[in-house]
Amino acid sequence: xxxxxxxxxxxxxxxxxxxxxxxxxxxxxxxxxxxxxxxxxxxxxxxxxxxxxxxxxxxxxxxxxxxxxxxxxxxxxxxxxxxxxxxxxxxxxxxxxxxxxxxxxxxxxxxxxxxxxxxxxxxxxxxxxxxxxxxxxx
Length: 138
Hints:
This protein is mainly alpha-helical. The chain has helices at 4-22, 30-49, 58-85, 91-106, 114-118, 126-131.
């Protein structure tokens, strides 16, 4: 049985190479720009924030999704700027750099998120109820 976090990691790692492959399609085709846009806008951030062994609690999942786009776009900006500075920018080089980054980062544990570590998001879960004392009110 494959664990859900391993499936997510594999999907994230494959998404960059799928986006790179989509660039071979005709220029104006939505089948070309939708995978590329989705990959650049979400995959690097999700690879950094989401794949955690025990999974994420509902509040931490929301936090990871909310932070995925800004983190992804920041990393894409850094990659594009670096490629421009060394005068090597092209769509292929940009996507290869991001796809390689996502592939490597997807194999590593995710960055701990505040909602995942402070326990604020698990108030309604069975894990939180098990930790509470009978007279404890939250």
